[in-house]
Amino acid sequence: MTDAPATCEKLLSAAALAIGRDTPRLDAELLLSHLTGWSRTSFRAWPEREPSAQSAADFRALVQRRVAGEPVAYLLGQQEFWSLPLEVNAATLIPRPDTECLVEAALELPIAERALILDLGTGTGAIALALASERPGWTVRACDSQKQAVELAARNAVTLGLPVEVVLSDWFADLPPENYDLIVSNPPYVAEGDQHLNLGDVRFEPGSALVSGADGLNDIRHLVSVAPAWLADGGWLLIEHGYDQGVAVRNLYSDAGFDDIETRQDYGQRDRFTLGSWHL
User: Fold this and answer.
1) Strand 231-240 and strand 180-185: pairing?
2) Are both 268 and 232 inside the same structural domain?
3) Beta bridge partners of 276
4) Which helix (H) or strand (E) holds 191?
5) What is the number of domains present in the chain?
6) Tens of pLDDT along 207-241?
7) Structural domain of residue 192, as residue ranges?
8) Of 32, 65, 154, 261, which sees the most CB atoms within 10 A?
9) pTM
C-alpha cells in the first residue's frame, strides 16, 4: 500500500490482501467506514470514490495495526453487543456474540418483573446493559475489580441511557450485602499456558480477564462457592465458561447445593454456560 491517491476499491483490495485472515474484506471496510463516515454499502455502490489524503493515510496506518493482529474492535473503539453500541478499549475483553446466549437464557428464567440483578466482572458492561435494556423493571448492578473497566462500563451506561449502577469490587468483596434474584458472570476461564492465549485477537486482550489458574476454573470455583450467600430464595446463578468445562462446572454447582443445574450451548453448539437455582 502506497501513499498515492486511491479509490475506495483500490484501498480496500490492498488492505484485504495485506490483512489476509478470517474476514479481511469486512475488517477493511469497517476501518474505512469508521474513518470516512461512509457506509460499507457505499463502497460497493461508488467504488471509484476517493477518500481524502488524510483519511487514506490514517486508513493505511490502521490496516498495519490490524496486520499486526490488533483486534478491529480496539481499532474502532467500539463493538456491538445485543444491538447496543459499546465503547471498548484494551482494559477489557471484547464482547463476543456467543455471550448473547447467556443473556437470552437469563431473560427466559422465571424471574419477577421487579428483581435485583448482579453482573460480576462486567468489563464493558455488556451483559448488564443488555439485561437492563430488556427488563426496565429490573434493578441491575455491575461490578469489576479493574478501575478502568468500571469507568468504561459506567460511560456505556450513561451513553445508552440505561440505569445500571457500576461499582469497583473484586467479585463480592466490596459489595453491600444483598439478596439477588439473578447473578450472572463471564469470568476468566482460560487455563494458564493455554495455546490459544498466543493466537489471534486474544493476544491483545487483558490476561487478567482471561486466565484463571492451572485448569481455568479458579474464579468459577470461587463464584459458585460464594454466590449462595448472595442469592435470594429461588435465585439463579449463570456463569459462562469454556467449551470443555461443562462437566466440571456442573459438578461445582452440585457440590455447592444448587438445583435445576443445566449447561447450555452457544451458537456453535459448544457448551458455553451453566445455570442453577438456589433454594434456602
Assistant:
1) parallel
2) yes
3) 237
4) none
5) 2
6) 677 777 889 899 999 999 999 999 999 999 999 99
7) 79-278
8) 32
9) 0.88
